[in-house]
């Protein structure tokens, strides 16, 4: 009797990264139909990908070295060694490390003990990976980077559109919460990303919610601990911060008319369900790389000289996010009405537009 191939995949990132990895997992399962696939996912990532049917087992691991608030050296390495021990104890035939930008994931993959080890030699930590994958093109979309890795493993090309599943219990909970069909259309605002240099700002989201709520219901999502989020209030604004599970957040977004947010989880979830989204994209990252995927995803970009900076906190004046509320509101309404055709909307002041014409 032929032995079942035992595969482990390391993807311990947050929600948005998990969404963008979904086509990789779907393709991996399609190729290795009879294999036993174990995914090592973050707590949020495990809930986000629940229901896809890609995994035989999910092991939840909260990787301390991937936190936005940088942990002590000992904490980071202790966490990495703990994950390494778990993976070595699993005695896998194949281990796949998906993070091309992370030294510790490369090290864990390298020392996993698996016969076949796929990953990146980040910072020379992948010294014992026997299938070293070339670094993906910098400006290519994260989803495409993941699919290039899958192609290295399988030799085949699979669809790259992110996908998610919503469960019936969460769908019913959302219907009960918003009024059992009384609200047929609504916009979701996701105003805080956890990455300060990505955030358009609570005051602006508050004003945007007030503007848009004159014609449609507004649902606010996030954590109660997100700075200032509880200040977003209004007659036709329902602030659900801290009230939803991740699965319920998926259900809420799946049934919405539009999702507006920063470069964060909300817009990526929308793209996976084919829901229209609008991202006010900061200059901290490349929209070509991290923008919400698909032809129903719209991005507002204000290019500045210092972007992409890659900073957690802006050391300038956040010029890249200095986009007026009325501009965002008009764009959102145009998207909902089908009037907005261009997916990339470049905001320029009159003087900047004039300078471009002169150039």
Structure, explained:
- The protein is an alpha/beta fold and 359 residues long.
- It folds into two domains: 6-154, Rossmann fold (3-Layer(aba) Sandwich), CATH 3.40.50; 170-358, Glycogen Phosphorylase B (Rossmann fold, 3-Layer(aba) Sandwich).
- It has twelve helices and 13 strands.
- The protein has helices at residues 15-31, 43-48, 73-90, 103-110, 142-154, 168-178, 202-212, 246-254, 265-272, 287-290, 325-336, 350-358; strands at 6-11, 36-41, 57-60, 94-97, 116-119, 131-132, 186-190, 217-220, 237-239, 258-261, 277-281, 297-301, 344-346.
- The protein has a seven-stranded parallel sheet with strand order 9-8-7-10-11-12-13, sandwiched between helices. A six-stranded parallel sheet has the order 3-2-1-4-5-6, sandwiched between helices.
- The longest helix is centred in the first third of the chain and has 18 residues, at 73-90.
- It is globular and about 65 Å long.
- What's the alpha carbon Rg, rounded to whole Å? 21 Å
N to C succession of SSEs: EHEHEHEHEEHHEHEEHEHEHEHEH
- In the CATH hierarchy, the third-tier topology of the largest domain is known as Rossmann fold
Distance between the termini: 70 Å
Number of domains: 2
Helical coverage, percent range? 25-40%
Task: Look at the structure and name the CATH superfamily of the largest domain.
Answer: Glycogen Phosphorylase B
The main pleated sheet reads as:
7 strands, parallel
CATH architecture of the largest domain: 3-Layer(aba) Sandwich
Number of strands: 13
Strand adjacency order, main sheet: 9-8-7-10-11-12-13
Overall 3D shape: globular
> Count of helical segments?
12
| Low-pLDDT segments, ≥5 res | none
* The CATH C-level class name of the largest domain: Alpha Beta
Helix/strand-derived category reads alpha/beta
Q: Give the mean pLDDT.
A: 93
Residues in β-strands, percent: 15-25%
């Amino acid at each position: 009797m032929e032995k079942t191939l035992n595969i482990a995949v390391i993807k311990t990132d947050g929600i948005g990264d998990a969404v963008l990895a979904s086509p990789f997992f779907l393709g991996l399962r399609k190729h290795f139909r009879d294999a036993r696939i174990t995914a090592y996912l973050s707590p949020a990532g495990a809930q986000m990908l629940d229901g896809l049917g890609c995994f035989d087992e999910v092991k939840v691991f909260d990787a301390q070295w991937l936190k936005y608030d940088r942990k002590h050296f000992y904490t980071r390495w202790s966490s990495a060694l703990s994950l390494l021990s778990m993976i070595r104890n699993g005695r896998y035939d194949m281990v796949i490390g998906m993070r091309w930008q992370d030294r510790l994931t490369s090290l864990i993959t390298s020392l996993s003990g698996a016969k076949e080890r796929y990953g990146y030699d980040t910072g020379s930590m992948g010294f014992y990976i026997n299938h070293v994958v070339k670094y993906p093109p910098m400006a290519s979309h994260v989803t495409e980077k993941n699919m290039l890795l899958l192609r290295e493993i399988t030799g085949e090309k699979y669809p790259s559109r992110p996908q998610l599943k919503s469960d019936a219990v969460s769908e019913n909970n959302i219907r009960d919460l918003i009024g059992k069909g009384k609200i047929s259309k609504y916009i979701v605002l996701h105003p805080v990303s956890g990455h300060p240099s990505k955030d358009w700002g609570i005051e602006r989201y508050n004003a945007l919610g007030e503007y848009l709520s004159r014609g449609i219901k507004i649902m606010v999502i996030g954590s109660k601990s997100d700075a200032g989020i509880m200040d977003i209030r209004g007659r036709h604004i329902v602030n659900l911060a801290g009230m939803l599970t991740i699965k319920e957040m998926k259900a809420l977004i799946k049934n919405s008319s539009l999702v507006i947010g920063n470069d964060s989880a909300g817009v990526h979830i929308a793209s996976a369900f084919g829901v229209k989204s609008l991202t006010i994209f900061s200059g901290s990252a490349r929209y070509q790389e991290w923008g919400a995927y698909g032809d129903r995803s719209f991005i507002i970009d204000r290019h500045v000289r210092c972007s992409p900076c890659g900073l957690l906190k802006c050391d300038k004046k956040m010029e890249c996010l200095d986009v007026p509320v009325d501009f965002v509101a008009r764009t959102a309404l145009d998207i909902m009405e089908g009037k907005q055709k261009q997916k990339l909307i470049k905001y320029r002041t009159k003087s900047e537009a004039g300078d471009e014409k002169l150039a």
